[in-house]
Design a protein that fits this description.
The protein contains 19 helices and no strands. It is mostly helical and 452 residues long. Helix 9 runs parallel beside helix 11 and helix 9 packs antiparallel against helix 17. The longest helix is centred in the C-terminal third of the chain and has 34 residues.
Length: 452
């Protein structure tokens, strides 16, 4: 019964994310950088659809008997201190410093929803069966395929009078449901990292199917088509790390099949560039003209945002400061395209230190979980891809990405807890064919208590 409940939980998470993608695609359709309705535009920036999905899952978990008090009680002392410290200060600058108190507080209070969502997943999963992994990702891939069809229709149905001249990002702002094409590509890249890890394991187990490789073509094609270099960077960082913790090597069939899929994806993507817009090209000659150009203008943005943080070093300037306090000559981005700068600018040192402590502890134990459960390599690959991309974009700002990050961490921590409490030999099959003894499992540090 426990395994059945876990399968259902993973399915619910997958379908909620998938529903969020489709609803956003239908609700937020535009050919301009902003939506015509200010209220609708703010709801898109706030991520209302995915916040609603998180709240729905939290309410379902509470209905099923998850108790946050018990989860909190099981945290070790240092984590409790860091959590309390963060909750006491993370809203301070939004309330007292930000020139837009309402907007900044709305962006800030989302973190309470995210934390509750991650805790609800952790509390809902007593075990993480191997077969539950596909339950998580299959609906998301289906939604992205539906979104690709909607995007094609949206682009092809544009009237001849539409001009993208008012946008510095060209047709990249016209992808349904996404503020920019780069975020679309990053989302596809994160799911691609998962599928590469899943196909890697499936190939080693001799159960890889055409579905695995078709999914890689779809996801890689959309990431390349969007021109998102951050997605490439994220995958290059993530797969070796995930493979190291899973202690597995790719076989020749996987390497040949994946290479062929990536080639097909590249050819399809480059043949479908919309209206010749250079925004959708992965690399141009001008990209090597300077470090700032190679980083898509991020070096200048980071420099200006760091200077802005130094004006408010202790408590920051509030969430959204990069929009409301952007200096003259700097485009007012929603976030500074770097998670560390985002935290410092939003919360200052006082809020960033406990936040990073919590995040690093959770990430480290999530990685340790894969030592005992190599079959969870795909989840770790997606997590690491998102974390790598968070150094270049807003993966820890936009709810659709935070949902993925917190879900990955919570799933891996729940799997670690289950492995440590099983006793005896781990009955969950390892993709490498190695059984993990109770001694080996117990050697993996637990996500909650020191010394476990």
């Amino acid at each position: 019964m426990t395994q059945k409940n876990s399968l259902a939980t993973m399915s619910v998470i997958g379908w909620l994310i998938a529903a969020g993608l489709v609803i956003c695609g239908l609700l937020y359709r535009t050919y301009s950088i902003s939506l015509p309705s200010p209220g609708l535009n703010f709801s898109r920036q706030l991520g209302v659809v995915f916040l609603a999905a998180e709240v729905a899952f939290v309410l379902l978990a509470l209905h099923k008997g998850v108790k946050f008090r018990e989860i909190y009680a099981d945290l070790d002392r240092n984590i409790r201190i860091a959590l309390i410290a963060f909750l006491c200060v993370f809203w301070w600058s939004a309330f007292f410093t930000s020139p837009n108190t309402f907007g900044s507080m709305a962006l800030t209070l989302r973190w309470i929803v995210h934390l509750a969502f991650g805790a609800a997943i952790y509390g809902s999963l007593s075990v993480v069966p191997r077969e539950s992994i596909s339950r998580l990702i299959a609906p998301v891939i289906a939604a992205l395929f539906a979104l690709s069809l909607l995007t094609a229709w949206h682009f092809l149905s544009a009237s001849e009078g539409i001009s993208m001249g008012d946008s510095p990002f060209g047709w990249g702002v016209a992808i349904p449901g996404f503020i920019s094409g780069r975020l679309f590509g990053a989302f596809c890249g994160a799911v691609l990292a998962f599928m590469l890890g899943e196909t890697w394991l499936a190939s080693n187990e001799k159960r890889a199917s055409a579905w695995h490789y078709l999914a890689i073509i779809l996801l890689a094609g959309m990431a390349i088509w969007s021109g998102t270099r951050a997605a490439v960077f994220g995958i290059i960082c993530a797969l070796p790390i995930a493979a190291l913790f899973a202690r597995t090597r790719p076989n020749l069939i996987f390497m040949i099949g994946t290479s062929a899929c990536l080639f097909v994806a590249y050819m399809l993507a480059t043949s479908l560039l919309p209206f010749g817009d250079p925004y959708f090209v992965l690399f141009e000659a001008k990209d090597v003209s300077s470090g700032n150009a190679a980083m898509g203008g991020r070096v200048n943005l980071w420099s200006s945002m760091a200077s802005l943080w130094l004006e408010h070093p202790l408590f920051g300037a509030g969430e959204g400061a990069s929009i409301w306090l952007a200096p003259a000559g700097v485009f007012p981005h929603l976030q500074p395209h770097n998670a560390i700068l985002q935290f410092l600018l939003s919360w200052g040192l006082v809020g960033t230190i406990p936040a990073l402590y919590l995040l690093v502890r959770a990430i480290w134990h999530a990685h340790q979980a894969v030592l005992a459960r190599p079959d969870l390599m795909p989840v770790l690959a997606m997590l690491d891809a998102l974390l790598a991309m968070a150094m270049l974009d807003g993966m820890l700002f936009f709810p659709r990405f935070i949902v993925l990050i917190f879900a990955c961490i919570a799933i891996l921590l729940a799997a670690s807890r289950a492995t440590r409490t099983e006793g005896g030999t781990n009955m969950l099959a390892s993709p490498t064919g190695i059984e993990h003894s109770a001694v080996g499992s117990a050697a993996v540090p637990g996500p909650l208590r020191d010394g476990r």
